[in-house]
Design a protein that fits this description.
92 residues; two-stranded antiparallel ribbon
């Protein structure tokens, strides 16, 4: 199974504790897999790290060219949901 699904594992554990008065560790392997597969996913937003973004061009000394990074003082390990990942094609 190559599909990735993000779930809130803490919420899953709390759900089983309150609904079934059991811990996830008490489940068999197949019960656990079914519980994870059937639990709703969480909403996520794709982000790009500044150092991988096409808007992150150096100007002199570590001054990002991206307005968002400049405004909020982001560093290379920061990220935002507005970035677009730089690929080999966009590096040229």
């Amino acid at each position: 199974m190559s599909e990735q699904r993000l779930i809130d594992a803490n919420a899953l554990a709390k759900f089983y504790a309150s609904e079934f008065q059991t811990s996830l560790t008490d489940l068999t392997y197949s019960q656990y897999i079914n519980a994870v597969r059937n639990f709703p996913t969480v909403e996520v937003v794709s982000v790009v790290h500044c150092s991988e973004c096409i808007g992150w061009k150096k100007q002199g000394r570590k001054n990002p060219c991206c307005d968002i990074a400049r405004m909020f003082g982001f560093g290379t390990k920061s990220f935002c949901s507005h970035g677009r990942k730089e690929t080999e094609a966009t590096k040229k």
